[in-house]
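Handout, section 3.2

Students often ask what a structure token actually looks like in practice. Rather than define it abstractly, here is a full record for Protein kinase domain-containing protein. The first block is the sequence as you would receive it.
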Amino acid sequence: ADLKNADLKSLAELGQGNGGSVEKVEHVPSGTIMAKKIVLIDAKPSVRKQILRELQIMHSCRSPFIVSSYGAFLAEPNICICMEFMDKGSFDGVYKKVGAIPIDVVRQVAFSVLEGLMYLYDVHRIIHRDIKPSNILFNSLGEIKLCDFGVSGELINSIAHTFVGTSIYMSPERIQGAEYSVKSDVWSLGISLIELAQGRFPFASTSDSDDENDSDLEDTGAKTERQQTWHARTHSTGVSLDGGGMTMSIIELMHQIVKEPAPRLRFAGSPEEFVDACLLKDPEERKTPKELLKYAWMQQALRSTFDLKAWASTF
Ligand code: ADP
Ligand code: MG
């Protein structure tokens, strides 16, 4: 049966992002709980139809590492996408709630994201394009799944003007204008893993170290006001290049990503080796998801008996 707004009862607001918002809803005829993403689009009717066709790909994704889709429909001037509701939310929310994520969990996140990326690319020839903690979801069964992948080129083009396609997880080559590749997603994964393991975004604003001293670099607890601003604004509303006070700090960040050595996961042995391979600045040298799955840390993930379900029940 076709999905329509009349059948969906709104239960709670789950969050706001770049192009829209996400609600927890009940599909009343079936009693199914879903997450409904509402995207305000700026496009002609023909383009809207094209977007809906492209979203069909999402509907055909069947993988334990990809959030499943119930379908999408137009509700002028929005597009609504109904997907599997993940009751533990996204990993940015998880670490903001529980603090730095245990390394065993970070390892399983890495493994799940790589498996998800492999599935999208091998089966559907899709590059995700927006890997970040808020697009990695968790549920109380202990499942880790990706959402919000770039199924629709037209949708990406049509998300209203506020979205400029800039992300703080962007790879150095993307910042410099190169085409997207699956290796850009690998970079974003590396940054996301450090963020989860440390409980904070790994880049620090350079002007903070100008007017303060550098001694707090290792102090994961202390956040400067500017970092928090970055964090809050880039996570909740997306990066707006004309957003007044943001302009300098986002350019500063982009400069750091391109010019400074990549951040590292300070966790000796296989986790460090793995994240270093994700964050090689030259995309030619950086590893592919397939290569990364052969790393020692991912082999441990494959054999892991860590109980994600039990961990999920702790918060
Ligand atoms: P962003 O990913 O940039 O935060 P989104 O609009 O994509 O913005 O999502 C907003 C929030 O909604 C996310 O941060 C996430 O916590 C929540 N969310 C998205 N999809 C789901 C889902 N399927 N189940 C549960 N929560 C979700
Ligand atoms: Mg998202």
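Discussion prompt for tutorial groups: Confidence is low (pLDDT under 50) at residues 208-247. How would you have guessed this from the sequence alone?
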